[in-house]
Amino acid sequence: MNQRFKSSMILAVVFSTVLIAVAQQQTSPTHPEVKSRNGDLVVQLCDGQTSVEVAGVRPGEILPPDKAREVANLLMAAYAEQQAQQVSKWTARDRMIWEREQKRMIAEGDKLFHDWKALGGTIGISCDMCHPNAANTHPETYPKFQTQLKKVATLRDMINWCIENPMKGPPLKLDDEKMIALEAYITSTRKGVPLDPGKH
Amino acid sequence: MWHLKWKQREEQYRRERADFFQAVARLDRRSFLKVASMTAAVTTAEQLMPHSFQLVEVVSAATQNKPAFRFAYISDTHLYERELNERFVNAALRAVKDVNALDPQPDFVLFGGDLAQLGQPKELELGKQILSELKAPVKMMVGEHDWFLDMGEKWIELFGPPNYSFDHKGIHFIVLMSVNEKDFWTERNMTPMERMLTVAGLDNPIQSRFEVGEAGREWLKKDLAKVPKTTPLVIFSHSPLYKYYRPWNFWTEDAEAVQAMLFPYKSVTVIHGHTHQMLTNRIRNIHFHGMLSTAWPWPYAPEGLPKLTVQMDRADPFDEADGAGLGTIDVYGGGYVDKHYLLWSRNPLTVAKAYLDSWGKTHRPPAPVFPSY
Fold first, then answer.
1. Interchain proximity B320–A166, CB inside 8 Å
2. Is residue B316 helix, strand or coil?
3. Gap between the Cα atoms of B122 and B130, Å rounded
């Protein structure tokens, strides 16, 4: 691969061996930063394991459009090659972990949805009192314009609205694990329901 | 007097209520004039001079169609102690004030059950205190939220037996306890509070289904034995005496058995709470009406909604009174009723006796502007 692009850049496609533990991914995971020995700009692929060193460009500089395109193409080509080498990329074990994690979050959300105390409510009103089985929440329609908020709101905005107003509790941070759990539960109840814009 | 936290809101509500009652008075006069002018137009078309007696005829016909009497219906207040939740207390007080403002006063007020949220003695006592402010006599019905902490002990102490009947102006009224459940708690070793919380969760699948039960049906049989088949019946149950949606217990397991006991009667009206939504159904000679909650609206279930139901507008989640309210019922001599939903944040809506009489073909109430939830 280096041969093909030698004229314009010195390339180093680095397959990092750093494993990121699931436990560390509480919020948005950040990939370990790869640094260039020459102090050049390093661009990383979203898999966190592949990177390209752009010769002659320093960090903080903006890539010219044609060079940016070239870097993106190179990264995608490397990614495709990487995938082609793995006959079965996702193992049964991977799927098991994802499923277990998703179910755990849905179950946690279900619990919170029925428990005003756990959600920080102060007056005895819980989510399920107005939304049995998360009915009438329509997560699939968000983000949408909420006339009352006078802006396009996300499902998390509305979850917080319900926590703050009917439930009289403090709003959750948007990346709070409780918030993600509520979103997981609410969304899980609407899987496979046809989208009906304008109705909900 | 109660201490009200939101004085401004209460004041706004008082003003709105005054406007509403003025509007109702104006409406009566306008609809009368409309009828009168229609008569005049018809007679002109037939090349006849309008005579004064024609107007008299219209008036007397209207009088004959007038309901015999009116009662009010407050339901599902779901009270917590005031220190924990003032919102539901204020809503209950608002309903009491609404009914007290009715002129003329209703013959009585039926409370449709779920006075308390978790069956706590203090919740029930608070409810009794609030309802004691009503000027009209109050008839009480029990709901599952009042019952499953101590299996009705406190409720019976405060309000008497849950099954009873009375006669009023030619109508036989029956208050029927319909929220018995088969024992799901002993085997699971549940505490009274765990049992209460299970029943209180609408979407909790562990609980049994509501039923009048064998003892209740036996009581009903005995009560009906002394009532002629021509006497109009009005029955109050907390859960609907039909099967709407089982997963949320919008459901009475032995509904068919109870209906079978009512089919021989000429006119039967069943009025229920529990579902917190506008709900209308008819099965043969039985007219069913679901009433509103003062606390919060439930959404409609995904299936099983009776066809005659005119659905509520989608409630505004930013307005705590939207989708909630109370009702009044006009009873005709024949026993069937017009029901009026007094929605707090929407225009009042009437589901007329004639709408049910015609199986929904005529007198259809206006459809909501927004899609139903």
1. yes
2. coil
3. 12
Distances (CA, A) of A74 to A11, A49, A166, B186, B307: 10, 14, 52, 67, 62
Distance (Å, whole) CA B175 – CA B133 = 22
d(CA B28, CA B233): 29
- Residue B371: list chain A partners with CB under 8 A: 198-200
Residue to test with chain A: of B80, B81, B85, most A Cβ within 10 A: B85
Q: What is the pLDDT along chain B (373 residues), one digit of tens a residue?
A: 333 333 444 455 556 656 655 665 555 555 544 544 444 443 333 333 333 333 333 333 334 478 999 999 999 999 999 999 999 999 999 999 999 999 999 999 999 999 999 999 999 999 999 999 999 999 999 999 999 999 999 999 999 999 999 999 999 999 999 999 999 999 999 999 999 999 999 999 999 999 999 999 999 999 999 999 999 999 999 999 999 999 999 999 999 999 999 999 999 999 999 999 999 999 999 999 999 999 999 999 989 999 999 998 888 888 999 999 999 999 999 999 999 999 999 999 999 999 999 999 999 998 777 666 5
Task: Report which of B139, B119, B121 is spatially closest to residue B71, judged by C-alpha positions.
Answer: B139
Kindly report the nearest CA distance between residue A84 and chain B, in angstroms: 46
Give the span between the Cα atoms of B108 and B270, in whole angstroms: 17
As a whole number of Å, the end-to-end CA separation of chain A is 52
- Quick one: how far is CA B359 from the chain centroid? 20
Q: Where do the DSSP E strands lie in B54-137? A: 69-74, 109-111
Burial class (CB in 10 A: 0-12, 13-18, 19+), A197: exposed
Cα–Cα distance between A131 and A105 in angstroms, integer? Answer: 19
Q: Which residues contact B66 (CB under 8 A, 6 or more apart)?
A: none
Angstroms from A123 CA to nearest CA on chain B? 5
Read off φ and ψ for residue A170, nearest 5 degrees.
-75, 140
Q: Which positions ≥6 away from B130 have C-beta within 8 Å?
A: B77, B79, B89, B92, B93, B96
Least Cα distance to B95 among B304, B294, B263 occurs for B294
Tokens found for residue B52: 């004064």
ipTM comes to 0.78
Contact assessment for residue B254 and residue B211, using Cβ atoms and an 8 Å cutoff? yes
DSSP element (H, E) containing B225:
helix B213-225
